[in-house]
Write a structure and sequence with these properties.
Number of domains: 2
CATH class of the largest domain: Mainly Alpha
Strand order of the largest sheet: 1-8-5-4-2-3
Oligomer: single chain
CATH topology of the largest domain: Dehydroquinate synthase-like, alpha domain
Number of strands: 8
CATH superfamily of the largest domain: Dehydroquinate synthase-like - alpha domain
Structural class: alpha/beta
CATH architecture of the largest domain: Up-down Bundle
Radius of gyration: 20 Å
Amino acid sequence: MYLLSRLMVKALGVVTPLIHLPKPFSFVGPGASLSMTREIIGTGARRVLVITDAALFKLGLANPVIAELQAAGVTVEVFSEVQPDPGFELVMAGVAHVGRYQPDAVIAIGGGSPIDCAKAILLCHANACHPRTLKGLWLYALPRKRTLPFYVIPTTAGTGSEVTIIAIVSDNANHTKIPIIDPKMVPSMMALDPQLMVGLPGFITAPTGMDALTHAVEACISTLATDETDALALAAAASIVKNLPIAYSNGQDLEARERLAVASCMAGLAFTRAAVGYVHAFSHQLGGIYHIPHGLINAIVLPYVLEFSKSHCTRKLAKLARAAGLGKAESSDMELSDAFIALIRKMNRDMSIPGSIQQLQRSDFPTIIDRAFSEAHGTYGVPRYLSRAQAVALLEQFLPGA
């Protein structure tokens, strides 16, 4: 069963290490956003477009960067129309804005939605195309044009979008999310500034942190994992399970915020090479249909997928458990696997992440499963394949009252 999918994944395992994946130059620590801004000024940029969302712009988080640019004589315009799960229409509105303003450089400030939206806007602008034409993996081979100079300041520690070659855009008409994958979207520089994250409330800190943990875990258990991705994923997971509870309970802890931001980037680098798995395949469908934040869905789905998969990735789950400081020297790999899954469940409970999806309808199961299988099979290195009956059983666990 799924022999073709396994062969396709094996082929990816041969090809993907040959693809060059750029990494942005990084500024890390309090004030990193202004340090990067001064470097952007030094490049000679005279017209800068800032892409962000309305709520973040209203809070004034972008103001110090804008003030620094303007003080150096740089003209700044802001595109703050980004909404959660940006769709085709929003991307094309951004493309039109870039065309009118003609910036020398673009800075994305915000969480995963503004960064993904900026990536899609710039790639569509550079290549005069619609985002739907950029869907999928196979387009690596096309000779696309490079985007405008692009810089990123993440304000959450979760998506890792600041270092990945992926942008997720919503097809709202069909209630689906499409991945756009291209190394040309990776920014030239990024700033991990914990001072911009201290104001995040717990209900945002928790799911974004669990999103990063999901990236690390799925990269680690993937059949596409390498020694390099394992090192990144294990370090990221260890840091997240330690620092996420601290940042959740005390959002002003700069050290925990900074370590989470770095861990999120490490997890992003890991899954860029090793890919993700069923958690993301199902989360993308559930989020697209019910418009639930991606990190929240990942947090809910993660322990259930790991419970199903553990018989085929026990050694890797045990490594994650040891990295998290769980178990004793004499603990078996299966005991450690169970302990790691239990830790994830406990983190969810402690951070008030629900165990079910209130919007989920049984009538949507066939669509969710079809789309999840289409996304995962042949592209993700899932350690154990679901049958259709097993996928139904998985979804049943998320029904209200299950």
